[in-house]
Amino acid sequence: MTKVSPLAPKGGFPPLPAIDGARFSHVQAGVRYAGRPDVMLATLCPGARIAGVFTRSSTRAAPVLDCQEKIGLASDAGAAFLVNSGNANAFTGKNGAETVAALSRAVAAALDLPATRVFTSSTGVIGEPLAHERITSKLNELVAGLSEGGIEGAARAIMTTDTYAKGSWVQLQTANGPITIAGIAKGSGMVAPDMATMLVYIFTDADIEQPQLQETLSELTARTFNRITVDSDTSTSDTLLLAATGKGPQPDTLVDFQEALGKVMLDLAHQVVRDGEGASKFVEVRVTGAADEADAEKVARSIANSPLVKTAIAGEDPNWGRVVMAVGKSGAVADRDRLSISFGPILVAENGWVSPEYSEEKAAAYMKGQDLVIHTDLGLGEGSATVWTCDLTHDYITINADYRS
Amino acid sequence: MTKVSPLAPKGGFPPLPAIDGARFSHVQAGVRYAGRPDVMLATLCPGARIAGVFTRSSTRAAPVLDCQEKIGLASDAGAAFLVNSGNANAFTGKNGAETVAALSRAVAAALDLPATRVFTSSTGVIGEPLAHERITSKLNELVAGLSEGGIEGAARAIMTTDTYAKGSWVQLQTANGPITIAGIAKGSGMVAPDMATMLVYIFTDADIEQPQLQETLSELTARTFNRITVDSDTSTSDTLLLAATGKGPQPDTLVDFQEALGKVMLDLAHQVVRDGEGASKFVEVRVTGAADEADAEKVARSIANSPLVKTAIAGEDPNWGRVVMAVGKSGAVADRDRLSISFGPILVAENGWVSPEYSEEKAAAYMKGQDLVIHTDLGLGEGSATVWTCDLTHDYITINADYRS
Question: Do B231 and A308 touch (CB under 8 A)?
Answer without folding.
Answer: yes
